[in-house]
Design brief:
The complex is a heterodimer of chains A (182) and B (35).
Chain A: H1 3-41, E1 58-61, E2 66-72, E3 83-85, E4 97-101, E5 124-129, E6 132-144, E7 159-166, E8 173-181
Parallel strand pairs in A: 2-3, 4-7
Antiparallel strand pairs in A: 1-2, 1-5, 3-4, 5-6, 6-8, 7-8
Chain B: H1 3-27, H2 31-34
The chains are: A alpha+beta (182), B mainly alpha (35).
Chain lengths: 182, 35
Amino acid sequence: MPAKTIKRINYGLVGLIVLCNGFLLFGFFKPVVEPFVKKTFDPVKHIDAGNPLPKENTLLIPSIQLETPIKTGLGPGSLNNAAWLRPAGSTPDEGGNTVLAGHRFAYLVKPTFYNLNRVRTGDVVQIVWEGRVYDYRVSEIKETEPNAVEIEDQNFGERLTIYTCTPLWSSARRLVVIAEPN
Amino acid sequence: MDKKSTTVILGIFAIISIGLLIYALFLTGSANFSG
């Protein structure tokens, strides 16, 4: 094979390696860097009286710079790029246990709850639901087994339950954040 | 190192990179993995 052809193949391979690894590294670090960028340039703030409300149903956790739409649906496809309002749960206006689930990490869709482990007890959580704001404050953070379906029970009164996978890169357990009405 | 040896080494790295990419896209794309 002529030396020129080998040189071209080498350049092609270098390009391929850079592209593949660049995509992997970008996806890996994006959710880590995103809250800091957002805090600097377009911070997520509490919704106060008089502020314009987001048009769609939204979950806000300003302490981790999280603002994500809430999707309703029967299948886990609703987890993609949003927080999924679990069909078995309540809704904020009904006053029961509102349950939201989301991806911790994924390359092809938004890792909605990547930073959920940084939420602390006492943090403010807000939900915009059907044009109204509902305020909550984080009261409990715990880890459960993946089959702990009791977190979706309706016998707790009015509260918000948010959960995702933990530890990062694994679906071995669930990280559960419970918030009570403020 | 001659150009052919370089091609072999780059080829191995390229195959590993593509393998990692496929693993990352398909495995973390499933709800079971990413929760």
